[in-house]
Amino acid sequence: MKIDSIIKLLDSIKSPYLLTIIVVVIFFLYIFKTDIASIFKSIIFKKKKVNKIKELKDHDVFNTLRSAVNEVKIMRFYTYGEYDSIKSRMCYDFTRYKSEACAKHMKILLNTEGIDRINKNALRSIIIKTQDDIHKDYIESIRALWISKGIEIEDVKYIVDLFDKFRYDVIKSFESRITAFFSCSYYDTNFDMLLAVFDMWSMGIDLLPRDMQITFETLNGKFKDINY
């Protein structure tokens, strides 16, 4: 609006009170025009990005799984001072199967129908079930492999139990953190909640090579001469 048009408009107003109010408002709008325009733009045009849980398919947890496998692959185990290639390959296979099971069931979790909208109790149940499914999956896979290699089922159980013993603190930490996440008010959406869980899983996977190393260094050389 041109200045002369504004002057004519003001001249047409007979009430001094109304005139004062209009002048103040015009002055205010002129002084703060940039800020006001920015506010209106953000309200009208800016759309808040809605994160979808499927976007977590690119989470670093999957890179961390691959890194853990590669780290274990170059580990060298010894029995009475001599390089034990069987123990080294057994550790690698154990880690590989566990990592594959983790990636598989995490992706199943991300593709769960309606996971962005389900209630928190349902989401928590799915997360717990995912952890259980991962454990069952890789245990079944490594048991089948090792038995096919001639390892007695009692020995397979011993190794798995030994690993679970060294892994116990990590698993208990997972349980505690999941409980904390779901009792916290900071996580507004299911995406926020699952992002926190995936970050937690990444931390646990970082410790996987350590736990594998401790497990297989504890074993004696009873598998050294099998046809593996």
Quick overview of this protein structure:
The chain is mainly alpha-helical and 228 residues long. Helix content is 71%, strand content 2%.
List keywords for this structure.
mainly alpha, 2 domains, two-stranded antiparallel sheet, 71% helix
Walkthrough of the structure:
The chain has nine helices and two strands. The protein is elongated, with a radius of gyration of 31 Å. By secondary structure, the protein is an all-alpha fold. The model has no long low-confidence stretch (mean pLDDT 85). It has helices at residues 3-11, 16-31, 33-44, 61-73, 85-110, 120-148, 153-182, 190-206, 208-218, and strands spanning 78-79, 82-83. The protein folds into two domains: 3-44, no CATH class; 53-218, no CATH class. The chain starts with a helix and ends in a 10-residue tail after the last helix. It has a two-stranded antiparallel sheet with strand order 1-2.
